[in-house]
Structure formats: structure tokens, C-alpha cells
Amino acid sequence: MYSAYILLIICALHQYNYGKISAATSAHNSTTKSKQAEKFFSHVLDINSDGMVNWIDFESVIESIVSKDEASKNARLKVLRKRLEQHFQKFFWELLKVGDSNQDGDIDLNEWLNVLDDVVNDLKKTNEFPDWFEDLFKSLWRANEFFNEKAVLKDEFANMLIAWDIDENTAGKLYDFITENGKKAMDYHLFAILMKKFFLNEIPNHILNLGRA
């Protein structure tokens, strides 16, 4: 569930980026994608529906994944909850640093869209994500228990993406594409390259869109 939540953030960024690309040829598509980004803000980030994203929202997400009650009864879940808190705290504080323009401790919708703009534009210029955003991908990777994380198998990769609501067929095609039909080992480095290609791709219905556009 944790990795699925992070993927929602990634997909929202991709939807916003694709919407800006589409705006050059279709105002309708631009409006649709903008609405998707706003819907993501309202339904996924703003958990308590107060119009702002703050630490209370992230605490609610953590509680829904591993409750305090569950963590108090199980040592493994206690460690997991602690790691979740650390990952989300780092992400939230960095989000505030780059996006909280009025320094009120909250992120409103306009501030969120500005953050998306900056992340995607920086990637296009440097082919690199900001360090704080790169940590999301590392967390995604480490949230899985691979037999060998330096050579992840296709079925392991598919199982990871199924948890993100991506069907097995799409996952298999994506694995074959990025590994060049198994010529390259699927490790974190290749996964990071995949995420960059995911954001930079401008071709509708391409396999790199993870079946989402």
C-alpha cells in the first residue's frame, strides 16, 4: 500500500506533465489533465479535505498503512511504521522547502502545481530528479523483497507493478522494453532510468506511460 501511494504521486506528476504537452495541440486535453492534477490533490494528498496538504494528512496515510495499535503488537510492523514516518517526514519537509511559498506550513493547490512544474522542468533540463524526489524511487524499490535486487526477475517486477494497479501484461511489456528483452539486468539503476523515461515520454499510448495515457 505504501508503494502504491508513492506511485500515485508519480502518476500525478506524469499526468500534469502530459497535460502541459497536450496543451500545445488541444485545450480540451490540457483542461482534462489539469482537472486530474486537481483531483489528485483533493482525493489523495488532502486526506482531511481542508484544502491544504500538511503533516496531519501524511499522519493519516501512515495510520492507514500501519496503525499505532498494530505496530505496538508486532516488532516488524513497528520498524515498518518507523521507516514510513521517516520517509514521509523527509518528503514532506522537502516539499515545504521547495513549495511553501507563503511559509505557512501547508501546501495549497497552487503551490502543489508549481512544485510539479519545477520537478518536470528540471528533469527536462538536467535529466535528473531533485534529490528529495529521487528518494521516492529508492523507497519504492526498497519496499519490495526481491530474490536478487541486482537482477530482478520479470515476475517479481510484474508483482511490484500489480500492487500499483498495473496489469501483468503491461508490466511484462514494460520489463521487456527497458531490459531490451532481458539483455540488461533489472536493478535499481535501470529502474531509475525507467522512471526518467516515464516522465520525459511525450508519445500517447506508449508502453512507458504504464498504461495510463
TrEMBL record:
One of its GO terms (molecular function) is calcium ion binding. InterPro entries: EF-hand-dom_pair (IPR011992), EF_Hand_1_Ca_BS (IPR018247), EF_hand_dom (IPR002048). Keywords: Calcium, Signal. Residues 87-122 form the EF-hand domain. The keyword Transcription does not apply. The keyword Signal applies. Residues 1-19 form the signal peptide. Transmembrane segments: none annotated. This is EF-hand domain-containing protein. It comes from Adineta ricciae (Rotifer).
